[in-house]
Amino acid sequence: MHFVKMEGCGNDYIYLDGEKEAISNPQALARKISDRHFGVGADGMILICPSDMADCRMEMYNADGSRGSMCGNGVRCVARYLYDYKQIKKQEIAVETDSGIHTVRVLKDSEKGKVSMGRPVILDQSHIISLEGQKLEMMLVSMGNPHAVIFMPPEEGSFKTWDMRRAAVISSHSDFSDGVNVELVQVYSETGMKIRVWERGSKETLSCGSGACAAATAAILDGRTKRKVNVEMLGGMLEVEWKSDGEMYLTGSCHFICEGDYPCILQETGA
Ligand SMILES: N[C@H](CCC[C@H](N)C(=O)O)C(=O)O
């Protein structure tokens, strides 16, 4: 089975051609191939399949094999895969996902992709849970997948040293029967914020496109930032813009890392 590994702002996935490869159990394959010691290693696996309504359909799996309905970094990488790898030289590539069709504009040198993420849906502007005896307030936002956004106080210091255990506990809190992606956010200016993300099904990732959009939604609604904002994450910077017509756009880099065969050809032939 041939795979390509790509990353969008450090959020890495294994991409497989769902038309060519016969994959009977994608959940189990996602778990094995994503393992960072016993597999190729990634935040998850994305199948690129044919679509009746778009240039392709993307099926996304988290590292634990669970299905994700949207992936802002993944959808940009899928467009780049079609553009550079499959030579589909269209400036705008439409990708069908479980949460609708998203159009990706492949920017000039194709190193960057700008995707229309749709309209954020506010599920609860002030959701309160109790954690270790303390009340914690968060905004619940759907970007086609669920997010809980929590603002961190400015005195919390360097975001590289934030304790992510809180986010892990919230992600599997009983209020969220399907789990939730968690963003810890520190706004530092009207046009900039830092976030760290705990993804349901994949633990902490270096970046999350839909998470950046959810965090921007909460910050904008709260009057903390303007409608165009840079979102700094461990893996780099994404740019989010919430247009006045309600549509949100996400821009960032997407790169090829490597390609290969899984399992290793030697193993398959018994050589
Ligand atoms: N990293 C992805 C989101 C994955 C979300 C997934 N963990 C879920 O179960 O919803 C992104 O760039 O948007």
From TrEMBL:
EC numbers, comma separated: 5.1.1.7
Compartments (UniProt record): Cytoplasm
Pathway(s) the chain acts in: Amino-acid biosynthesis; L-lysine biosynthesis via DAP pathway; DL-2,6-diaminopimelate from LL-2,6-diaminopimelate: step 1/1
GO cellular component: cytosol
Could be important to modulate the pK values of the two catalytic cysteine residues, annotated site positions: H147, E199
GO MF assignments: diaminopimelate epimerase activity
Protein keywords: Amino-acid biosynthesis, Cytoplasm, Isomerase, Lysine biosynthesis
Isomerase in keyword set: yes
Family label: Belongs to the diaminopimelate epimerase family.
Quaternary structure and partners: Homodimer.
Role this protein plays: Catalyzes the stereoinversion of LL-2,6-diaminopimelate (L,L-DAP) to meso-diaminopimelate (meso-DAP), a precursor of L-lysine and an essential component of the bacterial peptidoglycan.
Protein name, as recorded: Diaminopimelate epimerase
Organism: Sellimonas intestinalis
Gene this chain is encoded by: dapF
